[in-house]
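User: quick one, fold this
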Amino acid sequence: MKPIIEVKDLEVTFKTQEGNLKIVDHVSFSVNKGETLGIVGESGCGKSVTSLSLMGLLPPIAKVTNGSIKLKDKELVGLKKRQYRSIRGKEIAMIFQEPMTSLNPVYTIGQQLMELIRNHNSISKKDARKHAIKMLDLVGIPRSDELIDEYPHQLSGGMRQRVMIAMAMSCDPEVLVADEPTTALDVTIQAQILELMAGLQKKIGMSMILITHDLGVVAEVCDRVVVMYAGQVVEECSIEKLFSNPSHPYTQGLLSSVPNLDEEKKKLSSIPGTVPSPNEMPKGCRFAERCSYVHEKCYMKNPDLFITGANSRSRCWLNETEEEAVI
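Assistant:
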């Protein structure tokens, strides 16, 4: 099966006062039609920058300096802003972490939805309004015919996030990128939003990339997962392997730090140390200083991604085999 989106050797560099910093370093992954891929890792690991690269929404100080992003057979790296705008929203859409900063406070919900719909479809304002109301109904918003004329500040956090989902889905995108879509919501609303997204995904058969640091969310909705650390992919595997037999020590550390309701512990597990700074990346493995399995080779050279099974890879010398490594 040919992937609907394929990222190869992606590098994103930020221009700062300290020089050019590589925030995303040779990241590769793919997503098949109808599949949900989770991208997880600590804050600052590069997962959100990766998602913004897919959307062509990097800040002015950032630039894709290497690699390829293909949506079906269309190369997205190097596209002009006008070309990206014709794709964004229609073929690939995004739900942002905080809807209050993503929705324009001076326009009504309806005005913002209708603008997006009319940008990608040759329809009248009347028909665009009908479609907007239909989308609000689809995401479970009550009295949508009235709420469409309200402003973002008049809605709760959960309702604003539903509006963001309605906007993202309004043009039936083939790929939906969701960057921490439930972080700002309470647990009950989180569950509703995840259930809603999974239901809509099945309904229209789209693919989804879910950016999160919450392994509970990953377990709930993802088919495969990519684990990132210090700008690199350190593990990729199926959701079953992630929870039953993770290969990378960092992944193992993440899983052991999740509280277990069936166990009594006086102290929660944690990964010692901190993520290395982008301008002080070590020569060897980037996780070496925090790893309990570290040995001499780890300080000498950064490992490649070694194949650990069907569609599974791990960036750890413990997984080195005689097979050819995937860089």
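User: anything notable?
Assistant: Residues 322-327 have pLDDT under 50 and may be disordered.
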